[in-house]
C-alpha cells in the first residue's frame, strides 16, 4: 500500500494530465457521437452485403485521403473507447463508432453482430431519436 501511495505522490503530474485527457475525450465523445450515429443510414445493417459508399467512387487520390482520414478518426475512437472503459465516458458506444469507421476484413459481419446486441442497438437508436432520425433497421 505504501508503494502505491509513493507512486501516486511521485507521479502527480502524470495523473493530472491523465485526468485532463480523460475529460477532453469525454467532452469530444459527447459532442461527436450523436452526430456520427445520426449519419448512419437507417438501412445500413439490412443487406447481407453492403453496397460501396459514394466516396469510394471518387478520384483515387481523394478516395485514398478520405480512407486515411476515416481510418485515423476510427482508430482514435477505438483507443478513446478502450480508455473510457476505465475512465469517464461512453466507452462502448465510442468503440462501436470507431469500429464502424475503420476498414478491415469481416467488418460488416462484426458490425451486424455488435449492433444486434440489445444494449448497443437501444443506445444507438436513443441517440438517433434525439437527432430526429429514424431507428436503425436490423
From TrEMBL:
<feature type="transmembrane region" description="Helical">
    <location>
        <begin position="14"/>
        <end position="37"/>
    </location>
</feature>
<keyword id="KW-0472">Membrane</keyword>
<protein>
    <recommendedName>
        <fullName>Transmembrane protein (PGPGW)</fullName>
    </recommendedName>
</protein>
<keyword id="KW-1133">Transmembrane helix</keyword>
<keyword id="KW-0812">Transmembrane</keyword>
Amino acid at each position: 500500500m505504501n508503494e502505491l501511495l509513493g507512486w501516486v505522490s511521485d507521479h502527480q503530474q502524470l495523473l493530472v494530465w491523465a485526468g485532463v485527457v480523460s475529460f477532453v475525450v469525454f467532452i469530444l465523445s459527447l459532442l461527436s457521437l450523436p452526430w456520427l450515429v445520426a449519419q448512419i443510414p437507417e438501412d445500413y445493417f439490412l443487406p447481407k452485403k453492403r453496397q460501396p459508399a459514394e466516396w469510394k467512387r471518387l478520384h483515387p487520390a481523394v478516395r485514398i485521403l478520405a480512407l486515411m482520414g476515416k481510418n485515423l478518426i476510427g482508430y482514435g475512437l477505438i483507443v478513446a473507447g478502450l480508455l473510457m472503459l476505465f475512465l469517464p465516458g461512453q466507452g462502448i458506444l465510442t468503440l462501436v463508432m470507431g469500429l464502424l469507421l475503420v476498414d478491415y476484413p469481416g467488418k460488416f459481419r462484426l458490425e451486424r453482430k455488435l449492433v444486434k446486441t440489445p444494449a448497443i442497438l437501444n443506445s444507438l437508436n436513443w441517440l438517433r431519436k434525439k437527432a430526429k432520425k429514424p431507428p436503425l433497421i436490423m
